[in-house]
Request: fold
Amino acid sequence: MTKTDVDISVDFAGLKLVNPVFTASGTCGYADELGDFMDVNSLGGFITKSITLKPRKGNPTPRIVETDAGMLNAIGLANLGLDRFVEEKLPVIAGMSVPVFVNVAGELIEEYVAVVERLAREDTIAGFELNISCPNVARGGISFGRDPRQVSEITSAVRKAAGDKVLIVKLSPNVTDITATAAAAVEAGADALSLINTFTAMAIDVERRRPVLANLTGGLSGPAIRPIAVRMVHQVYTQVARQANVPIIGMGGIQYANDALEFLLAGASGLAIGTALFVDPRCILQIRDGIADYLRRHNFSSVRQIVGLLQVGG
Ligand SMILES: Cc1cc2nc3c(=O)[nH]c(=O)nc-3n(C[C@H](O)[C@H](O)[C@H](O)COP(=O)(O)O)c2cc1C
Reply:
């Protein structure tokens, strides 16, 4: 039930979104794959699975396992690559009214730049989300996203390639201080930040005395990570994003409207839903409607009034 008495639209990096709810990258395909379950055009924004310059098969299986209140994935950026994305998915995206943000990944800065340069020409793309949590082979196997200097370097390079498209930088939680990487991205020209990606984690099959995932480790997502994600959004909002006037898309374990409200109060203007879609894809619209109900119950007229409204102390 969506009522019009409260305004759930948000201003997001120069765009007006009908509501704050996004899909989280990697959980909804590239375009309208979830069309049988929901109308993706009723979302605030659609974020595609990561695209790389060349197609990738990803990691060997098993590459997904359920954990208590979450899951581990080690998909390894399996994707169809830029050329097939342009041929097969862009025409579908052209028929979608929701703003679409292409999540871009790679092993070298030049690969990110090449993908963004190609797609920046497309009117149907609203912007990009940079996945900087994947291994940077050329620089010794660490992630771009762990080192503020590398975050700055990749953000500035892609900023130029992105032209006037919205540039969202997606932060890794696998760092000591997420405000340092957030500040680096903002200073280098990010229009928005999204946080968080998954936590590096592992599970062991004790009978076989083997790792459950063929890749040994995977990324932990789902409700298990939510309190840490909320803390990180609060830190990034209060220490970096609020003064820079840069919106945050909060994510990590959002399953119900109440979870989404925690992120809004902590300072997120947008919310992305990932793992919960594997339980029930329609939860995403229930979350949207639950936010409107909360506003009504608490006599707010707009969702914008509650962004960062967390009261701390006496
Ligand atoms: C199966 C799976 C695949 C994912 N693939 C990507 C991806 O391709 N690129 C990316 O930036 N994040 C990817 N993520 C991370 C999510 O977008 C999100 O940041 C994370 O899962 C936390 O949100 P959640 O707890 O709601 O899932 C993936 C997550 C899952 C569970």
User: Anything to note?
Assistant: The mean pLDDT is 94. The helical segments are 81-94, 109-119, 148-162, 178-187, 226-244, 257-266, 276-279, 283-297. The radius of gyration is 18 Å.
